[in-house]
Write a structure and sequence with these properties.
Elements lengths: L7 E5 L5 E8 L3 E8 L4 E5 L5 H9 L3 E6 L5 H12 L7 E5 L11 E3 L11 E4 L8 E5 L2 E5 L2 E2 L2 E2 L7 H12 L6 E4 L4 H8 L9 H14 L7 E2 H7 L8 H13 L22 H4 L7
Parallel strand pairs: 4-5, 5-6, 6-7, 10-13
Antiparallel strand pairs: 1-2, 2-3, 3-4, 8-9, 9-10, 11-12, 13-14
Length: 288
C-alpha cells in the first residue's frame, strides 16, 4: 500500500525561483530536492540516502549547497551519512533543529523556531509531537513538514504529548491554504482509509479524495502532492477541533483496527457510514 517507485511531479514556487523534485527512496520515503534557479544550487530535505538526489542534481547541472533536516530518525538523516561516506560534505551546510532530542549528524547550523535557514531564507517552524525538536521549513508557498503532517494524516507520537502534535498541526494549518505541503512518506491511502472509518457522511470530501488516491496508487503513482487547504478539508487529524479529540483519533489509528475491515465504500447519502469502530463511536460525536 505504501511503496512508491516513480518520481513525484515537480512543483514550482509562487515566484518561480524554486522547483521541488520528489524522489522515491527506500520503500515509502521521499527525498525532496529544492532547486534554486537563480543561483544554480540545490538543497536536499531529509532522506535515507543521497543516491537519487545526487543523480538529479548532476543531471540538472546544479551544485549541492544545503541539507535541511526536519528531525533525527535514521531514514531522514541517512542522507547526511551517505554524503559523508562519499566525501561530499565539504562546502555543504547541514541545517537542523537546535532542540532535537535525537542526534543530527554533521550540523553546521542549529536553528530555532522563527529563524531563517541559509537556503531560500526558509522560515523555521518548530513542530513537536512526532519527536521533540522536530522542525518544518517554509519557503514562499512551500512547506516541508517531515513526519509532522502527512497527506491525509500525521506522524506517530514517539515523544508526544498529543497536545504538542495538535499544536503543531494547528500551526501548519494556519498557513495560507494554497501552500504546497511536502511530507516525507507515502501513507496517503492508508490515512484516508482510517479517516473513512470515522464515519463521515456520503458527501464528506474525504470520499472524493480517497477514491482519487486509490486510482492513482493502483496506477503506481504517488498521491503526496497536497496543499494546506486540502488538508484542512480532508485530514481528520487537522479537523479534530481539540487536543482531546486529536488524541482519541491518534490512539484509534495506532490500534490499526480499521485495517481489519473491508475497504470502505461510499454510504448512501443521508444514512452515514456503517461499521465505525466502537471506540470511536464512544467519543459521542462524529469527527467533523
Amino acid at each position: 500500500m505504501h511503496a512508491i517507485r516513480q518520481a513525484i511531479p515537480e512543483r514550482r514556487s509562487r515566484s518561480g525561483r524554486y522547483t521541488v523534485h520528489g524522489l522515491p527512496a527506500a520503500t515509502d520515503n521521499v527525498v525532496w530536492v529544492l532547486e534554486d534557479h537563480a543561483e544554480g544550487r540545490a538543497a536536499i530535505v531529509d532522506g535515507p540516502d543521497a543516491a537519487a538526489a545526487l543523480a538529479l542534481i548532476e543531471q540538472r547541472g546544479l551544485f549541492l549547497s544545503t541539507v535541511l533536516l526536519t528531525h533525527g530518525h535514521g531514514d531522514h538523516v541517512g542522507v547526511v551519512h551517505d554524503l559523508g561516506r562519499r566525501d561530499l560534505l565539504g562546502g555543504v551546510s547541514v541545517v537542523g533543529g537546535a532542540h532535537s532530542r535525537l542526534p543530527l549528524p554533521s550540523l553546521t547550523y542549529r536553528v530555532e523556531d522563527g529563524d531563517h535557514a541559509p537556503f531560500a531564507d526558509a522560515l523555521v517552524l518548530r513542530t513537536d509531537g512526532h519527536v521533540t525538536g522536530h522542525v518544518s521549513y517554509v519557503i514562499e508557498d512551500l512547506v516541508f513538514v517531515g513526519d509532522t503532517m502527512f497527506a491525509g494524516g500525521c506522524g506517530y507520537l514517539f515523544d508526544g504529548p498529543a497536545a504538542a502534535m495538535w499544536a503543531s498541526l494547528e500551526r501548519l494549518a494556519a498557513l495560507p491554504p494554497e501552500t504546497h505541503v511536502f511530507c516525507a512518506h507515502e501513507y496517503t491511502e492508508d490515512n484516508l482509509r482510517f479517516a473513512l472509518s470515522v464515519a463521515p457522511e456520503a458527501d464528506d470530501p474525504v470520499w472524493n479524495r480517497y477514491e482519487q488516491v486509490v486510482q492513482r496508487r493502483a496506477q503506481g503513482h504517488a498521491a503526496l502532492l497536497t496543499t494546506i487547504g486540502e488538508e484542512r478539508a480532508t485530514n481528520v487529524f487537522v479537523r479534530a477541533g481539540s487536543a482531546e479529540r486529536f488524541a482519541a483519533l491518534r490512539q484509534a489509528k495506532d490500534s490499526r483496527a480499521y485495517r481489519a475491515a473491508p475497504p470502505p465504500t461510499r454510504p448512501i447519502a443521508g444514512l452515514g457510514a456503517a461499521g465505525a469502530p466502537m471506540h470511536l463511536q464512544q467519543l459521542g460525536e462524529r469527527i467533523p
